[in-house]
Amino acid sequence: MSWQKARDGILVLTLLGALGFLPPILPFFDRPISLFGVPLIVVYVFGAWLALIGLALWLSYRLPRHIARTGVTNPDDFPPTPGEGPG
Amino acid sequence: MLSANIVLFTALAYVAVLFLVAFVSDMKSRKGWLGLVHSPIVYTLSISVYCTSWTFYGAVGSAARNGLEFATIYLGPTLVFVGWWFLLRKLVRIGRIHRTSSIGDLISSRYGKSTSLAVLVTLIAVIGTTPYIALQLKAVTASFQVVAEATDTSLLGIPTRDIDIRTGFWVAVGMAAFTILFGTRNIDANEHHHGVVAAIALEALVKLLALLAVGLYVVFWVAGGVPEVFRMPAAATVLQGPETFGTRWVALTFLSAAAIVCLPRQFQITVVENADENHLRTAGWLFPLYLFLISLFTLPIAIVGLTTLPPGSNPDMFVLTLPMLHDQSALALLVFIGGFSSATSMVIVASIALSIMVSNHIVMPIALRLPWRRSAGVSGDVKTLLLVSRRISIAMILLLGFAYFVASARSDALAAMGLIAFAGVAQFLPSLIGGLYWYQASKTGAFVGLLAGVLVWGYTLLLPSFEGGALPASLFDHGPWGIAALRPQALFGAVGVDPLVHSLFWSLGINVALFVLVSLLRDQKPLERLQATLFIDVFRNPADNEARFIRRSAAIDDLYILAQRILGTEQAHRLFRDFARQQGSRDDLPQPDTEFIAHLERQLAGGIGAASARVMVSQVITGETISLDELMRLVDETQQVIEYSQQLEHKSQQLQTTARQLREANERLRALDAQKDDFLSQVSHEVRTPMASIRSFSEILLSGADLTSEQSKRFLEIIHNETLRLTRLLDEILDLSHLERGELTWTLEPIDGSAVLARAIETCQGMATGVDVEVHDGAGAIEVLGHGDRLAQVFINLISNAIKHNTGPGPRLSIRSAVVDGRFVVDLQDNGPGIAAAEREHIFSKFARAWTSDRSSTAGAGLGLAISRAILRRMNGTLDLMPASGRGACFRVTLPLHRNAGQTPRAAAEG
């Protein structure tokens, strides 16, 4: 999977998560049904939440790492190449 | 039951551990050992400072009252962190590049390093946070009294005596001491507090463990399993609250999402304390997981508490009173420590964040404007001023929180403070998001929107929280001065809406509207425009670019004195030396060029805020110009890059097409080249044969052998004939080459095609002895555009070919002419051997002879058909070999009739 796809995936995941936790999706599960003795709405909220976290974990490590330019982040540690920084 | 002394001792021991952890981490990080403190896990745990005692105790209370609604407080942040790549990453990157020290600094810096905006943000943050701190003090005090009292009523979660002010005071003092000790050790250009972060992370673990322990105990010990919990009668009442998933649900989810970004303490931990942007990758899923775990048992605890604890119990204390009901002292103590952790971590981080904002945005600007401070100062004086003002600020903030706590100790006003604070800081959201993604967002717009939003928030949400106190009830029932439209909880007649939703709608609505409107109406100042570009395009433009737009100069000594005043001698020296090395200078002082001044200003901004840093640097620089042209170019560059890439794509497609065309052209050229070579070798061959005979006969004549005159004459005849043949050949070649190049200048004129054909047949009559020629003239007298002699040449060539090469018995030639579709068509069909399939394609090319087998010396050079075709083409006609049908070959000549051609005389004349 290319990182652009992972990025788009993260966007879709966020939007889907927002939709899934808002009306009208949420009240759809608010009905007197029990799964393993737990009300459906509780199972849905916590199940969807966990799924969201799992997918975020899966996608996050497909995004590129940030390689910090040390010269920007730390005044004590300029990059050794003379031509790169200010000056 | 626990005695007060045991609880107190445990709490003190825990505090000692926190001090130790903070101290060790601080020492080690100073020595460059970052290890665990510098890990994404610690970063994530420290973000959980979001979960204060309000969520530690209050979430269960909220669940007991409103069912699943408590989850919204965690779902909003979950979504923001899952989408970290889009907002948080940008915030962290900007925070690092521009050395942002607080959310006020970020907003002020984005809008042209405005001091007034920074002051406004700071004031809002203080107003919103102080009651929140009071809430924490109250939670610690109340939980201490509940857990340490040995009476039955403590199980109700309501302290028997009044809230003990003294406990609250000492808690406040302890937190102030910790915060001052570890939060204001130094003025750091990066504003990192490793000790504090380590302690906060430890506290995050403790509060999670405490809640999980209580949850597991309650679910599996007290209730006996998950299904049993939801079989309790309270489960139905909790989960079937009316209108759980209405507008309030949406508003709370949005509010919590805004709070995780806008709360000053969250900004401090997530952005300012961030040491590595890659930590966000872990926090993106681990922090939601933390929130998930911490809220996993909230609902069961609320249900079991409602069922088993006596009626009238305080649901906000269920977490603590449930273990006490079952005499689990150790667990109760753990819960108390957990609640203590969540309260203290919030207070510590919030007071650090606020003290930085107060010292940078309120104290510094005032100090800079005082006349006796403007002139020369001694080394480190600004640094000392900052540190002292931060320490005082921390003490003052906690004192303010304590005062608030004392004033409201007897009322329930604090309970709602969590959401009120959220709604207050949510006012930052429009300016923040607009500042990060909208170039035109201007300082005036942000200021007006923020101010209006906060005023509406204060009027519609904060003010009603004091209801029943100093405020008259008539204000809420009839509005100020009896104007019903201005009732705080029913603004402009919006009656019957949830107060929080009501306030959020009006405050944020007016905030956004004014922000956008004023931004559109008022122009930006050059510095605002520059900062907007630097912030919005932070992933494209490193901050070094700043030097392109602002031209400044200053004396290096002035700059050095300035840096010393703010950073202290040692750090200033290091900063200057490093930059001098960077410039390639052996000296310890760098060239004070524009780049260095920009770099220095950013470093100073890390300590005193962007607005104050700009003011201080401006005092020593001599000339400043902001190059607007450069700035506009930068903005355009982004657009240009997009356009270029589109153009490139287009160009590359064109290139591909061109390359294909070139390849095809090249293939055609090669074929032509091969044909030319062929042609040359054919010509040589054709010339060589007559030359050979001419040469050999002339040699015989020259040798002077005894030749009879008759023989000599015959030889000379042969030589003559061969010469004629040679000349004819060369004429034909010339003729063909002229024809092909269109150089022949004969004009086309209307001629009678049938007459020309008849003349040609007549001419060939002599040759045609023994051949049965039948003519079917189906065309009659018709006019075609052409050249009579040339057309005759074509017919003669075709007829003579048909006669010459028809070697079969009973040779026959049938010539039929007709007019078909406005064209004069002549078919010449013989009954000879025909043309082999392999030869059909080449028959019209030069020197092609389909009849090579019977080639005789009188045969043509093989140019006849090629010439005929070229001639016909000149007359807009065609010459084709018809598809083989039975025996023999059939050639077809077609020419357009003049009547038709007459309609386009010009084309015909040119053709």
Would you mind describing this structure in some detail?
- The complex is a heterodimer of chains A (87) and B (911).
- Chain A is mostly helical.
- Chain A has helices spanning 3-20, 25-28, 40-60, 70-73, and strands at residues 34-35, 38-39.
- The model of chain A is unreliable at 70-87 (pLDDT under 50).
- Chain B is built from 38 helices and nine strands.
- In chain B, strands 4-6-7-9-8 form a five-stranded mixed beta sheet. Chain B has a two-stranded antiparallel sheet with strand order 1-2.
- Chains A and B meet through helix 1, strand 2, helix 3 and helix 4 of A and helix 5, helix 6, helix 11, helix 13 and helix 15 of B.
Head-to-tail CA distance between termini of chain A: 40 Å
Number of helices of chain A: 4
Query: Biggest interface and which pair forms it?
Result: A-B, 47 and 63 residues
Query: Which regions of chain A are unreliable across 5 or more consecutive residues at pLDDT < 50?
Result: 70-87
Helix content of chain A: 40-55%
Mean pLDDT of chain A: 73
- How many strands of chain A? 2
Give me some keywords for this one:
heterodimer; A: 87 residues; mainly alpha; two-stranded antiparallel ribbon; 2 strands; 54% helix; B: 911 residues; 5-stranded mixed sheet; 9 strands
Quick rundown:
The complex is a heterodimer of chains A (87) and B (911). In chain A, 54% of the residues lie in helices and 5% in strands.
SSE inventory with pairings:
The complex is a heterodimer of chains A (about 90) and B (about 900).
Chain A: H1 3-20, H2 25-28, E1 34-35, E2 38-39, H3 40-60, H4 70-73
Antiparallel strand pairs in A: 1-2
Helix pairs in contact in A: 1-3
Chain B: H1 4-30, H2 40-47, H3 53-56, H4 58-66, H5 72-82, H6 88-97, H7 103-110, H8 115-148, H9 165-183, H10 194-223, H11 226-231, H12 233-239, H13 247-262, H14 264-272, H15 279-296, H16 298-308, H17 318-325, H18 329-369, H19 371-374, H20 381-407, H21 417-425, H22 428-437, H23 443-462, H24 473-478, H25 499-521, H26 526-536, H27 546-549, E1 550-554, H28 556-567, H29 569-582, H30 594-608, H31 610-620, E2 621-626, H32 628-702, H33 709-741, E3 749-752, H34 753-764, E4 772-777, E5 783-786, H35 788-804, E6 812-820, E7 823-830, H36 864-874, E8 878-881, E9 890-896, H37 898-903, H38 905-910
Parallel strand pairs in B: 4-6
Antiparallel strand pairs in B: 1-2, 3-5, 6-7, 7-9, 8-9
Helix pairs in contact in B: 1-8, 1-10, 1-18, 2-10, 2-15, 4-16, 5-13, 5-15, 7-8, 8-9, 8-18, 8-20, 8-21, 8-23, 9-18, 9-20, 10-15, 10-16, 10-18, 12-16, 13-14, 13-21, 14-18, 16-17, 17-18, 18-20, 18-31, 20-28, 23-25, 26-32, 28-29, 28-30, 30-31, 32-33, 33-36, 34-35, 35-36
